[in-house]
Amino acid sequence: MIQPAPRVPPGVPRPRVVDVFLRYLVAEEARVVFGIPGGLLHPFFEAVEASQDLRLIVTKHEQGAAFMADGYARATGRISVCGGTSGPGATNLLTGVACAFADGVPMVVVTGQAASHALGKGAAQETNREDMDIVAMFRPVTKYSTMVTSAASVPHHLRRALRQALTGRPGPVHLNMPVDLWEMELDGEDWFDPDTYRPRTTTFDRLAVKQAVEFLMHAEHPVILAGAGLRFSGATGPLLSLAEMLPARVATTPRGKGVFPEDHPLSMGVLGFAGHDDAREVVLGPETDVLLTVGASLNETTTFNWSPQIRPSKALLQLDIDADRIGRNYPVDVALVGDAQAILVELAYHMHRSLGGREPRSRWSVAEPLSRGHERHDRPELRTSDRAPVTPQRWRADLQEVLPDNAIVFSDIGGHMLFNINHLIIGGRQSFLLNLGFGSMGHGTVAPVGAALGSTKRPIFAIIGDACFTMNGLELLTAVEYDTPVIWVVENNNMHGITWHGSQLVGSRRPLDSVRYRRPLDVAGMARAMGLAAWTVDRPGQIQSVIREALSLAGPSVVEVRPDVTIPPPIGERAQSIAGFIRR
Amino acid sequence: MSAECTVIPLRSDESEGVSVDRFGPPDPHINLRIVWGLGRWVAEQRGAEVLARVAAAADISPDQLDGRNHWVSYDRLEAFLAECRALMASDDEFEDACIYRMSEAYGPFRFALWAVTPRLMYKQAVRTMHMVSSICTVELVAEGANFMRVKYVPDRPESYLMSLSRFAQTSAIPTLWGLPKAQLTVHSRDDWGRSEYEVKWRVKLNWLPPLAGATLGAIVTAVVYFGLLPSGPVAWALLPVLGAAVGHIMDLHRTNRLNRNYGESQNEALQELASAAVEAQREILELGRRQVQWTHLVEEQLAERTAGLTDMIESLGRQQEDRQDRLRGMSHDLRSPLQIITSAVDMLHARGDSEQERAECIGELEGAVTSMRVHLDQLMGVVVADARMVRHTPQKVDVAALTTALRQRLKAFVFDQAVRTSVFSTREAPDHIMVDRLVLDRVLDNLLTNAAKYTERGSILVEVGGTPGYLTIKVSDTGRGIEREKMEAIFVPEGSDVKGRAPRSFGLGLSIVLRLMGEIGGRLEVMSRVGRGTTFWAHFPVKPTEAPVVASRSGEGAYAELLERVVTIRRPTP
Fold this sequence. Notes:
A: alpha/beta; Rossmann fold; B: H-NOX domain; Heat Shock Protein 90
């Protein structure tokens, strides 16, 4: 309901900009603000701390604040908020915001600015548009970036920012606020209910749906490739129903791992980077006649450097909320632009009606069954190996036995990520979160803290590498301060493993020894010093009891795994493409 | 018992303090397919009429002895066994009848038996006991390459004949491989039917591969070391033949291994199917339990309401007497101001010239009018209360759990039908709603069972979503559909066409759904096309409505009003 700004009667306190600002955030279901207070953003943080509806989490670095806000939004599906004061407080947020932008995570980024009357005069940490233009710095990594220049326009810009953040493909938005604006009073509240400034983006082309259903109904070997875009749409249920109805075999992108339960009989696992052979052989093979991609951009990491074999024999159907991604890398036969849930529900319903009493034509039920058990993974013999130190494959197989069936698992970037993609089986109620869009190291280390603050009923795990731990590991102090129950499993090979192993596959193939640490790293010791419970594991069969103990503690804890460092991760085509880039 | 079965005296320490009165209502706990052979024996050796008579005496249908899954109570099976035994001369003959045509009872699976062993079969029999009985437990006590010792404990007493039937079939399993019967030794059996017994079978020695290998080895040795073969073309021809023979034997071994794997995987698939059947059976039993629970609740509330109505009638009678007294009083009260008005008017006519006197008369007129107005308001005051207040007990229901339950229920309802099911939720669904759980289950059970009853082929899709303030559950089927002109009639008690109803349907379900939805402030939508199927939307308020929603009239008028208020009939899109 639209309420025109009422004139405030005399004698009644007028709302301040900061009060209206927070009211909008709360109305959009934001509950936590991450950041580091500073002078030029002090009024905002002061109001958040005093608010009954919001919680302020002070991090150790603004990059950590942005990563945590990102993790919070990914785990809860709600918009998150992070803030940094002017100058370096703002620029420190950039990497985290870029991660959110690359993966379509809704976030409000608030940065401080010198007072409006002091702009251009060389105020401390001033980042105005004539000099170090902070708005321009954020523009490429946000959906909306602006400096608000008057108190009266704050609600307008905030609504516009929220609309951008939450409609279409979600993403981060940036508001740079001169410090003097916050305490200014407004003549009226200028309040719009969220439903009145944000359109629902659940429209779709019914004709395109019917065309897609025609192809799917008549396909003998239909395949669905599900991407991370499904997560924010809440479309995992309709996807499962559609896949079972056809039936269609399903693969996910590396970033979309887990959006389709990998323990389901129709799951082929991951296609692409560190993926599974079944997915590769079926999707790239001659049998697949119709391929439906959902929320997948068909980028390098999924398509084996844009292999032409991805195109199926009869039809490629691409479903994405962002029209700009349709046909970006492959020509499509049917484009389905819109919200994944709305369209998948419609596809399922239309399929159900169109089939009527007939059986679908899919012949997957009589095809050769998919690999199951250890055979579906890379180097399966190492998953049952008893050798010491423990192999990366074996400890992950052990971890699987005790991973709670509703766990949220974060992965960071590095060699451990490749093992995580290939060797972890993510079931129906579990989630796997990986910022592969931007691929920033440290995200998977810190984002789980934000997730734990938002999703309090699900156990949170972070399976990371030592290099990521050293990059952003001090944010574990934040976890201790706020007692967030995250279990970090740090695979410590004392080097940048993916770079060291990969260096032997590209260029001169000489190993880049500089990436190996000069002194051994004691991750568990560092964790204990920060106040976390910590254990060290280096033998097969050890990690199960440690994880059980960590879960029972219900607090932040670290499990350092010291694996056999000679075993390379499943780098595969990534090395080839890097080699190709270098040659060019 | 046969000569191979040796009975050792009872061990009865566990039978003390156990009541035999645990039969209760005849719940279906045992699968009739275990007596398929016995039924065939009676039909073929004594005739179909005798089988029909024996089955009728046990209160089962001869059609239920077709070797498929038919669950009946223990009483009926015991009665059937007793009737069959009465036709035979001895226990030995009874045992032979129990294993009559036994291999055929396994259907196509008997062709895959050569990929498994008797030991594997016995172990499977222990693991899949729940396929034939849901009120017993079987525990594997010890096992070896050619024996197995088992402890069997039924939840209720079972007869000697039941045990005899089981022992006969258990000892006959090796005959499926052409081996002699196993030796079955009963170590203990008490009156309850608890027993501990051991089966020992002969292990089949597969002598062919070693013999073939030895022969081939001898030939190769002779050729190589003793030069028995002449050189030249004969040697050149014979060696490849030998090589081919070796390859063929290796291929046979590979095939045997593959087929053994196939057999094991088929076993697993059968076990999964059996588990699904048991799960479906449980859901059906749960549905029955919810129906009974609902009936009890209705009966209790009916009794309460009857008592309440009696009190209300007495109260109304007293109120009526009060009203009559008050009316008489009011009649007197009204006459007073009327008399004043009459007098004042007469005065105005008689002495209305003086300003003061006119004012006094008008004052009295106004007073009288006010008094009359008060009395009339009292007369017109009516307490509006409808005695038909429906009592509901809203509780918090988790929607994710509800979605999972609906998925399981729907699968059970269409078990053994060629109907696909799909149940999923959307992000618009609320996390939970406050609703009377019995009402919710009643409405959903009705919609799902209707969809299952009227859909012979195709699929049923259930979407759990929401609109602001409501949980919306959409049930869509590809069933026979409803004619447009009958769409309203299906909501009226017995309003649906008798011919169009599914068997065992009394045409009452949707009328109850309509009334319940009206009482909780819910809504229904329906869309249908003959030959294409039907879709129902049930909208449940997330929070209970402020005031109960009741029909203001009774009978057909009440349903018409409810229909208009609660139901929307959608026109199907072309």
